[in-house]
Amino acid sequence: MPLLLQPLLISGGFIENNVLYYDARSGIENLKRFYNFLDSTELLIKDKSLFTKAKNTLFKYLDSLALPYFSMDARDAFNIEEIPHKEQAAVWMADIAYNNAMITHAMDNNNISLLTYSQLKHVSTAFHSFAELLNYVDYDYGWRHIYQESGREEIYNENGLWGLKNAHGEILLHPQFDEFYEFSEQDVAVVMKEQQYGYVHRSGEVIVPPEWDNAYDFDYSNLAIIQRNGLLGLINLSGKVVVAPTYEALNKFGSQGHYIAQKNGNWGVLSEDGKVIINFKYDNIELLHDDVIMLQKDGYYSLSEDGDQFDLIVHKAPPQGFAWAIKGKEVYLIDKYGISRANKDLVRQDAENEGYSLYYDDIVRARLLAYAKSSAENTVTDVYTPVEELYNIGVDAYNRQDYTSAIYHYTLAAEKGFGYAMNNLAYIYYMIEGYVNDDKAFYWYEQGAAARNTNALNGLSLCYQYGIGTIPDIEKAIDLLLQAAEDGMAAAHNNLGFLLYKTDPELALFHYHQAEALGEPDYGLLGSMYEEKGDFETAFRYHQKDDSEIGAFNQGHFYQKGLATEKDIKAAIGCFQTAIDGGYDRAHIELARIYLFEEGFIDKDKAKVHIVAAKEAEIEIPEEFKDPFD
Question: Which of 207, 440, 464, 533 has the most crowded Cβ, counting Cβ within 10 A?
Fold first, then answer.
């Protein structure tokens, strides 16, 4: 059930024959409230015009519905598990209620940050925040879910042949196909006629007439595999052949849309546009995990064409990596950070596990145990040092102010994809005198942000804010801060408050309060904002919490003027002196003002001392201070 539509399932829920029913009218009103709440939330929606169009279309569609209930028929899904259907339905209902409680809480408090994505039930792990899901182009701000699941087109059979009708029963394709398969996420279906396969669009357009020996779904991709004469190729959504059918095997893998392919008995890798990115010279190529592949040639194994060769690479039991690489007596761990020297205790634990035979045979096990039981040797710090160890060495070096060593070790860990190291490396290039490099700071903050390191998101936003290594882009800076804030980073909320202070003070105040709730309040700015609002009691309370020299100055100002407290010049003098002792020279002006004009405290000599100090600090002297000394 798409998260954006779950507010429809808000009341009257009951279960009957493993189908969940909810009151439609109250659900529609609740969803309207939700969308209006989203519409009113500043900086949440990337494309207001598209959102407004989708919202209006969605509202119009929902208002056209006449039946009293929304239903969720989950019987097919429930058959996947052995738990009784009624129990599964109850769990689903409870999870939907939980999500709606979070949504309602956010709406009641007019606070989108209360909708914490990581705490919601059964949401897509492809997104890291609610804002990211909401603005995902293919969802069309929720309307796409209705469009996909409304079943407006009908695949129908007549005289043993299949055709297509629209929602009004009008014929889009006359019955002509022997088979008509379901539409994919790209609104394209495979059809078959006389044992030949092609593609049709949901609109009724025949994209590719049945002319292929076999054709496969696009399956969340803009490419599909086609077959002719036993050989495979790729076709795009417009029906253009992107990769001619010349391959004996073709298997998509990873997040980059690459394909493991076989040609003339040899294996290589293709990009999605058909370019050869790994030459066809390998005896075998096997997917180890996500984007990680294993290359095999002449009895040796590697992870890349120019990578180190190993005697053997074998899958291992999770967690802590997904494969072992063996070379001679040495064993290395392969995980998402690449290849590192294996921890002997981890190797022993894995090899002695009862389920080892699911991953490797007794010969491999013997080599693993021999490594695990071998005497410890001092090893150099290099690319095979585990990333956590490299990172910790870098931290120790940084704390000693040995920045050259810190950069070396952070770089080794960062190049393996360790987000914390990327962020710390970027910070050195951003901040540390003698090592500042704008381009490298931006590069590593960008890499760290891509690795979803929250501190790097915040650092990259600063680069966009001040033009460090890139062109200034405040909108991009705000977007990055929103992502970091969604992850619960207090500093990101404070930075958002700073950026929004002039354009949207109420939203800025909201973010300052979020930072306060997360334990990193900016009492000074909170006090100043409430002071501008005329709420002096709240402002004074925050200024009293601010133990900085500026906090002391602000308290002195309130005592001096009698704002939210009784006028107390002695207390004001004490606060201003504390501010001066802390280095806030502007307090000299206020002390001079007291000694010049405040009845009972006038002392021109003291006033002159503070005016001289203010001049030395290059602070502008008010006009009214000059006459008494003429």
Answer: 464
CA 358/CA 68 separation, integer angstroms: 53
- Choice between 489 and 628, residue whose per-residue pLDDT is larger: 489
pLDDT tens-digit readout, 545-578: 999 999 999 999 999 999 999 999 999 999 999 9
pLDDT band at 76 (very low <50, low <70, confident <90, very high): low
- % of the chain beyond a pLDDT of 70: 96
**Helix pair 490-500, 505-517: axis angle to 10 deg:** 160
Long-range CB contacts (within 8 A, 24+) of 141-149 = 141/4, 141/45, 141/50, 141/51, 141/54, 141/55, 141/58, 142/2, 142/4, 142/5, 142/35, 142/54, 142/58, 143/54, 143/57, 143/58, 143/61, 145/2, 145/4, 145/5, 146/5, 146/58, 146/61, 148/185
Confidence of residue 148 (pLDDT cuts 50, 70, 90): very low
Distance CA 408, CA 197 (A): 56
* Both structure tokens of 157: 């059979």
Mean pLDDT of 400-415: 97
What is the helix (H) or strand (E) element at residue 438, kind and residue range?
A: helix 438-450
Q: Is 605 left (phi over 0), alpha (psi -120 to 50) or beta?
A: alpha
Q: Which of 85-94, 422-431, 490-499 has the lowest mean pLDDT?
A: 85-94
**What's the CA gap between 429 and 4, in Å, rounded?**
41
- From CA 378, how far away is CA 25, in angstroms rounded? 71
Q: Are 561 and 567 in contact (CB under 8 A)?
A: yes
Q: Is residue 12 pLDDT above 50, yes or no?
A: yes
Largest Cα–Cα separation, the chain: 110
Separation of alpha carbons 121 and 124, rounded Å = 9
The position carrying tokens 């006028």 is 567
Q: Return the pLDDT at 544.
A: 96
Q: Are 550 and 579 contacting, i.e. CB atoms less than 8 angstroms apart?
A: yes
Compute the C-alpha angle 93/94/97, nearest 5°. Answer: 85
Q: Which two tokens stand for residue 546?
A: 């601010």
d(C-alpha 429, C-alpha 484), whole Å: 21
Burial class (CB in 10 A: 0-12, 13-18, 19+), 299: exposed
In this prediction the pTM is 0.69
What does the block give as tokens for 214?
A: 């076999």
Q: At what angle do helices 505-517 and 523-533 cross, to 10 degrees?
A: 140
pLDDT of residue 75: 57
Token pair belonging to 81: 């598990």
Omega of the bond prior to 319 within 30 degrees of 0, cis? Answer: yes
Q: What is the DSSP letter of 562?
A: T
Q: Which of 154, 165, 149, 191 is nearest to 61 (CA)?
A: 149
Render pLDDT for 24-58 as a digit per residue (tens, 0 to 9). Answer: 999 999 999 999 999 998 778 888 888 998 898 89
The first and second tokens of residue 56, run together, are 């209006």
